[in-house]
């Protein structure tokens, strides 16, 4: 076993039990280290445990080594990364692909809070790669962990977790995004005795679609019923359609998926027949929290870059950061970053504690459903705004592709659309609030 992986496993086991040692002993060292507070303050300020701080440091070191700035810029320009699969193996060796999965299948059995820290750190380096990571480790691996049966877990999780397989989730279709239950992809049993379904239709905007070995896919099994299926790359009739050329998240491969008379064995049905909506709902709160690590990492990267720049670039004989208008912008960016992080971390902590205290199978609803939606709504919109602010601080340089802030802003915008739009999130939060007054 990779020594880093073993280290992470040993250091983080206790986090499951909420034996949180607050990170205080090193604060004094950090304060006197001369590092700006934007780099060191987060863990001390937001009460991370010692184990979580070490976990973050490990993921950060890994991401900085494997995803250097020049490589990330090249991937963004090319919209493709030929080394994607090798990188996946390295993530598998680190244990990052199965953070919330059981150790029985190679997972680390850590919390959703820990998972979002990994998402945050990968996003701080490369938003697109991190989006692919979120789709794989949360939307696919965690959904199998929550809803798969033993046989399915044994068959798929070890390879998804060690990085031999890439996973994805396919729900959206060209004609049904926000209104996802209007999907047209159909699964039909040819006769009552058949032990397989025949799937026809197509899916659109699927993260990791071009690479995926396993697709957690939803299809209609009756007029109103939706069922979840595990589709395997080599199934006859299953293919990758057009690969999408995107504004941002260009390090994350996205495509259409086509299903033409694909025979899917009954044993690949996840959960109950017509129980797809339940399966979908079961992971939503956690999906929103883990994915929120994405905009948080992007904001962190934008602030770090822009704050440095503001103190290195001189105009009128002074660093531009010393002018009051820019000083105000830095203050607003820092305030937005820190308050976003506080809401996300607090909600993640609360959800993990709730999950560990509820002994029944986790269901979609928790007391924090509206907060999970509010967290991702807030962070997604704030990350785009901070990306735009960073471009403004860099002036003409910010508007070129020679500096990373443009990429960060383009990557951030996705989080206002993918995995549910801001409008749908507002609608859900408003509906939940209204329910409380009935
Ligand atoms: C890069 C990327 C990756 C993605 N990855 C995946 C993936 O891995 N798997 C997957 O299944 N899907 C994925 N998606 C799809 C994504 O979830 C959808 O794009 C999203 O749900 C929005 O659907 P839509 O694009 O059809 O927009 P539409 O639903 O057509 O919405 C268009 C606009 O209308 C607004 N709108 C719609 N309905 C309402 C309403 N009732 N009230 C107010 N406003 C409304 C929306 O908010 C939006 O502003 C991805 C998308 C992108 C861009």
From TrEMBL:
Q: Report if keyword Oxidoreductase is assigned.
A: yes
Q: Which InterPro entries match?
A: Acyl-CoA_DH_CS (IPR006089), Acyl-CoA_Oxase/DH_mid-dom (IPR006091), Acyl-CoA_Oxase/DH_mid-dom_sf (IPR046373), AcylCo_DH-like_C (IPR036250), AcylCo_DH/oxidase_C (IPR009075), AcylCoA_DH/ox_N (IPR013786), AcylCoA_DH/ox_N_sf (IPR037069), AcylCoA_DH/oxidase_NM_dom_sf (IPR009100)
Role this protein plays: Catalyzes the conversion of isovaleryl-CoA/3-methylbutanoyl-CoA to 3-methylbut-2-enoyl-CoA as an intermediate step in the leucine (Leu) catabolic pathway. To a lesser extent, is also able to catalyze the oxidation of other saturated short-chain acyl-CoA thioesters as pentanoyl-CoA, hexenoyl-CoA and butenoyl-CoA.
Enzyme Commission number(s):
1.3.8.1, 1.3.8.4
* MF term (GO), any: 3-methylbutanoyl-CoA dehydrogenase activity
GO CC, sorted alphabetically, is: mitochondrion
Say which family it is in.
Answer: Belongs to the acyl-CoA dehydrogenase family.
Q: Name its pathway.
A: Amino-acid degradation; L-leucine degradation; (S)-3-hydroxy-3-methylglutaryl-CoA from 3-isovaleryl-CoA: step 1/3
Task: State the protein's name.
Answer: Isovaleryl-CoA dehydrogenase, mitochondrial
Q: Any one Gene Ontology biological process term?
A: L-leucine catabolic process
- Organism listed in the record: Blomia tropicalis (Mite)
Specify the domain of life of the species encoding this protein: Eukaryota
Every Acyl-CoA oxidase/dehydrogenase middle domain range: 169-262
Main EC class the enzyme belongs to = oxidoreductase
What Pfam family is a match, any one? Acyl-CoA_dh_M
What keywords tag this UniProt record?
Answer: FAD, Flavoprotein, Oxidoreductase
Acyl-CoA dehydrogenase/oxidase C-terminal domain boundaries: 275-433
Please report the stretch or stretches of sequence annotated as the Acyl-CoA dehydrogenase/oxidase N-terminal domain.
49-163
Describe the reaction catalysed, as an equation: pentanoyl-CoA + oxidized [electron-transfer flavoprotein] + H(+) = (2E)-pentenoyl-CoA + reduced [electron-transfer flavoprotein]; butanoyl-CoA + oxidized [electron-transfer flavoprotein] + H(+) = (2E)-butenoyl-CoA + reduced [electron-transfer flavoprotein]; hexanoyl-CoA + oxidized [electron-transfer flavoprotein] + H(+) = (2E)-hexenoyl-CoA + reduced [electron-transfer flavoprotein]; 3-methylbutanoyl-CoA + oxidized [electron-transfer flavoprotein] + H(+) = 3-methylbut-2-enoyl-CoA + reduced [electron-transfer flavoprotein]
């Amino acid at each position: 076993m990779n020594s880093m992986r073993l280290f992470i496993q040993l250091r983080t086991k206790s986090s499951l039990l909420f034996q949180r040692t607050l990170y205080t002993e090193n604060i004094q060292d950090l304060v006197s280290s001369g590092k700006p507070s934007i780099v060191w303050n987060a863990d001390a300020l937001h009460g991370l445990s010692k184990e979580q701080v070490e976990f973050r440091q490990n993921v950060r070191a890994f991401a900085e080594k494997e995803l250097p700035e020049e490589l990330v810029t090249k991937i963004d320009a090319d919209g493709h990364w030929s080394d994607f699969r090798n990188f996946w193996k390295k993530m598998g060796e680190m244990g990052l692909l199965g953070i919330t999965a059981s150790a029985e299948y190679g997972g680390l059995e850590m919390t959703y809070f820990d998972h979002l820290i990994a998402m945050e750190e990968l996003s701080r380096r490369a938003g697109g790669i991190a989006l692919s990571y979120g789709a794989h480790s949360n939307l696919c691996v965690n959904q199998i962990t929550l809803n798969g049966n033993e046989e399915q877990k044994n068959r798929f999780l070890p390879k998804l977790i060690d990085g031999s397989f890439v996973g994805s989730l396919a729900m959206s279709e060209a004609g049904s995004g926000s209104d996802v239950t209007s999907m047209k992809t159909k699964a039909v049993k040819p006769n009552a005795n058949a032990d397989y379904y025949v799937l026809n239709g197509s899916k659109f905007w699927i993260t990791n679609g071009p690479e995926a070995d396993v697709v957690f896919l939803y299809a209609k099994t009756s007029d109103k019923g939706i069922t979840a299926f595990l589709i395997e790359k080599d199934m006859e009739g299953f293919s990758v359609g057009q690969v999408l050329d995107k504004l941002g998240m260009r390090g994350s491969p996205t495509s259409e998926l086509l299903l033409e008379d694909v025979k899917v064995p009954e044993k690949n049905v996840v959960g109950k027949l017509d129980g797809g909506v339940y399966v979908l709902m079961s992971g939503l709160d956690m999906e929103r929290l883990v994915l929120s690590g994405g905009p948080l990492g992007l904001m962190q990267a934008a602030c770090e870059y822009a704050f440095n720049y503001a103190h290195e670039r001189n105009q009128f004989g002074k660093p531009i950061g010393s002018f009051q208008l820019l000083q105000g912008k830095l203050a607003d960016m820092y305030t937005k970053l820190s308050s976003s992080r506080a809401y996300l971390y607090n909600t993640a902590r609360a959800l993990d504690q709730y999950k560990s205290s509820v002994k029944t199978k986790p269901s979609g609803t928790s007391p924090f459903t509206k907060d999970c939606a509010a967290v991702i709504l807030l962070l997604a919109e704030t990350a785009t705004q901070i990306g735009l602010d960073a471009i403004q601080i860099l002036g003409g340089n910010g508007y070129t592709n020679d500096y990373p802030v443009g990429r960060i802003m383009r990557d951030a915008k996705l989080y206002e659309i993918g995995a549910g739009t801001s409008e749908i999130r507002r609608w859900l939060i408003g509906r939940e609030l209204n329910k409380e007054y009935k």
